[in-house]
Amino acid sequence: MSETNRPVPSVGMVGGGQLARMTHQAAIPLGVGFRVLANTPTDSAALVCADVQLGDDRALPDLLTFAKSCDVLTFDHEHVPEPVLRELERAGAVLRPGRDALRYAQDKLLMRVRAEELGAPCPRWRAVTTVEHVADFAAGTGWPVVLKAARGGYDGKGVWVVDDEAGAAVVVERATGAGVPLLVEEKVAFSRELAVQVARSPYGQVAVYPVVETVQRDGICHEVIAPAPGLDEEKATHAQELAIELAHALGVVGMLAVELFETERGVVVNELAMRPHNSGHWTIEGARTSQFEQHLRAVLDLPLGSPRTVGRYTVMANLLGGGDPDVFGRYIHVMARDPELKVHLYGKEVRPGRKIGHVTVVGDDHVDLLERARHAAAYLKGEA
Amino acid sequence: MSETNRPVPSVGMVGGGQLARMTHQAAIPLGVGFRVLANTPTDSAALVCADVQLGDDRALPDLLTFAKSCDVLTFDHEHVPEPVLRELERAGAVLRPGRDALRYAQDKLLMRVRAEELGAPCPRWRAVTTVEHVADFAAGTGWPVVLKAARGGYDGKGVWVVDDEAGAAVVVERATGAGVPLLVEEKVAFSRELAVQVARSPYGQVAVYPVVETVQRDGICHEVIAPAPGLDEEKATHAQELAIELAHALGVVGMLAVELFETERGVVVNELAMRPHNSGHWTIEGARTSQFEQHLRAVLDLPLGSPRTVGRYTVMANLLGGGDPDVFGRYIHVMARDPELKVHLYGKEVRPGRKIGHVTVVGDDHVDLLERARHAAAYLKGEA
């Protein structure tokens, strides 16, 4: 794409999921080139983006070809193996975030070691290879404990809450069998979950978004309230500073999401992601600069946009597939009921429990907004 | 594109300009199918949209092929000839707006006749074929007068302000030579120009946006301030009611833009457009539902979204090409200077005076917003 008589920079996003779809949407007004490496022509982003390379988004040959057509490579997910990233960098590809930063989003064990070095508040944890290690650890923290795959997982899962040695034994055996390294963490007694997002450019500029409340169920993000209602200002500032420190220390380029537990003693770091994140979908309508636009500006080393909020509160609820695939039939009723609500569909085939879209609503009263977003999500799932 | 297991409706937009580009952007979250019929692969919309048919966007064979792949056809411009529209309807294509409505946007003479029948305030006017007709008319209104091509035009123009008989003679001769029918209108003594947009669905639902002030220079829209500052509430309501009445009476489906003159005696209708319009680009950031989303909802007969404003004022300024094509080089400085400002680039080659994008800024003080938008537009043109 050429805006002007000289070429404009072009970003290639590895992976064709909904994050790439929404990043494409943000690339249109910016007028920058935007390409996607998608596995299939029906990937969420491939359905809408003009410039798609089909291929294996984790395999070196396809990534090398893709990299040649882009000034900068960035990622829809964390699944490109580290050795592949190394070869890409060796071949001269500009990865943003780079491999040195990405490994902390790919490996939870490395992330815990580094976060503690940096003085970030973390749950108690240790690497484990046997059920005896887990039992030893639980003797100090009490059961239940949380087992996590450091990288990858099995059966599509990477986090297991186990109540006792017998439960731990099942996970350790299956993970070991699948070659998945594990760590154990204390189950943090939190009052709620929070998240904070920050963008960082290669130049070192940062832009931090307000701390949000995230509501998870069965390990899936269901709702986000921005900003987190009633959050103590000091705690909010501390969380934002923490995210900025992590972004600088880990050398993140692009968006960083820090998922946190709010506890009586303060916030505790749960997970990191170095890409646009579900906890930031609210920014499309709720902030002057969406996380998708901000990610593009950051990876292209453009000046960052204002992360200022547009309304007092913004609430987002994920749309999960239900038993009846006719989402579009129900969509019309949701639109008619609430003309202020924004529905985002990702073009994905409906399967029970699968994220197929989200809804967003902006206003003054977060209780009312949450009720409306929840109703729409339930109705679209076929439950209301 | 399929969101669900049953097909979702698909809109085809005829023409690949920036209006189609921004409508594509709005189609992504809605999850509806969106195709473009573009003349070349470097058309503004063809650069970003996944689903493009290349062809002649005014020729029946290409339009018939295009229509087969879409549930609904809509338009980026008014240039599809009326006989072609008739054949498309005869072949079963669903045109929204339909041919009966579109002719009032295509033919200024028909529009004036119909608008007067409906009691809409219009400038004095008459159809003219000779310079004597113009002189007779001007004897009643005084010079200068405005000559308009009822359809089409010549030298890329369709409106001429002429000061005397000699000036009129040049236009009449050239228009007659080119087979262009003319009308003459009084030059309205207006205090400023206004515009109002309304969406109408086949079901008959309407959603009206606030009346905006438009600043034109050399016949090109330069700036829009939404809502029009200091506009008398009664006048604003009257303009909105007028737009709604016109939309119903003309059977418009989709967006209708009514361009108005504000005079001492009230508002006077200048022009109509039945598509997303430059006077509504501010709605992308400034309203809950952008004109592009609203147009899609209307042509698909979906419930309309809220046209409510997001901030107190939104100001838009068009970006026109200047002498130096390196817009992107200057873009970075504009972003750095004003992180709240949104730049939209259309992917068009820079030529002096050509619309290549726009900027938008939302806030409380319209004087400050206008200054910022103007500065950005001038800087991007290479003038500041």
TrEMBL record, chains A, B:
Q: Does the keyword Repressor apply?
A: no
Which reactions are catalysed by this chain? 5-amino-1-(5-phospho-beta-D-ribosyl)imidazole + hydrogencarbonate + ATP = 5-carboxyamino-1-(5-phospho-D-ribosyl)imidazole + ADP + phosphate + 2 H(+)
Positions contributing to ATP binding: K108, K148, E185, E186, K187, V188, E193, N270, E271
| Broad enzyme group | ligase
> In the Enzyme Commission scheme, what number(s) does this protein have?
6.3.4.18
Q: Which GO terms describe its cellular component?
A: cytosol
A Pfam match: ATP-grasp
GO BP of this protein:
'de novo' IMP biosynthetic process
Top-level taxon in the UniProt lineage: Bacteria
- What Gene3D superfamilies does the record tag this protein with? 3.40.50.20, ATP-grasp fold, A domain, ATP-grasp fold, B domain
Domain ATP-grasp, residue spans: 112-300
InterPro entries (alphabetical):
ATP-grasp (IPR011761), ATP-grasp_carboxylate-amine (IPR003135), ATP_grasp_subdomain_1 (IPR013815), PreATP-grasp_dom_sf (IPR016185), PurK (IPR005875), PurK_C (IPR040686), PurT/PurK_preATP-grasp (IPR054350), Rudment_hybrid_motif (IPR011054)
Write out the coiled-coil annotation as residue ranges: none
Family annotation (PROSITE patterns): ATP_GRASP (PS50975)
Q: Which GO terms describe its molecular function?
A: 5-(carboxyamino)imidazole ribonucleotide synthase activity; ATP binding; metal ion binding; phosphoribosylaminoimidazole carboxylase activity
Keyword field:
ATP-binding, Ligase, Nucleotide-binding, Purine biosynthesis
Describe its assembly. Homodimer.
Q: What does this protein do?
A: Catalyzes the ATP-dependent conversion of 5-aminoimidazole ribonucleotide (AIR) and HCO(3)(-) to N5-carboxyaminoimidazole ribonucleotide (N5-CAIR).
HAMAP family listed in its UniProt record:
PurK
Which family is it part of?
A: Belongs to the PurK/PurT family.
- Its protein name is N5-carboxyaminoimidazole ribonucleotide synthase
Lineage, opening ranks? Bacteria, Bacillati, Actinomycetota, Actinomycetes, Streptosporangiales
